[in-house]
Amino acid sequence: MMGGRSEHPELWTFLESLPCGEHLSGTVTAIERFGVFVALDDGPDHPVCPGVGFITVPELSWRRIEAASDVVRVGQRVSCEFLQFDTWNLEARLSLRATQPDPFQAFAGSIAVGQRLDGQVTKLVPFGAFVRVADGIEGLVHLRELSWTPVQNPLDVVQVGDGITVLVTEIDRERRRLALSRRRTSSEHEGHTP
User: What's this model's pTM, rounded to 2 decimal places?
Assistant: First the structure.
């Protein structure tokens, strides 16, 4: 632990005074595998880290990103929202994505359950396939929704990069999840004689 109020009174007082949701400006000072350090314009320096502000990788962007360097670079000016005072590391936990509109909510407002969408398979998981249906928007086609015939492995039906048509089966705005079906877009079960 970094040490408490008595060792770094100025820093502690500054962090404790920040209201949740406050917008703070600063400069990116270091990019790590787990997140980004930000030197804040207002407030004291950090005794150990290269900045008092810290943004975890998920808080950098609404999109799924591989690395922090996909979004920011060292020396870049950023405006972030204050999330919480991390008393363990004496840091201001920040969010860059909270200052930007959530593309999922805009997309969710423009589609409806039952609508067909064209997409591209981006990732295969044991329980199904993720499909990108718009820029920065992905949905899950569950294993049972991939085909009319039972599927053990998504690879039996689709591969990453495949373009497929899907049907929207559920829009969960709160969890930012889109459930899709490939099975229900196909009419291969129709017209079959028993």
Answer: 0.76
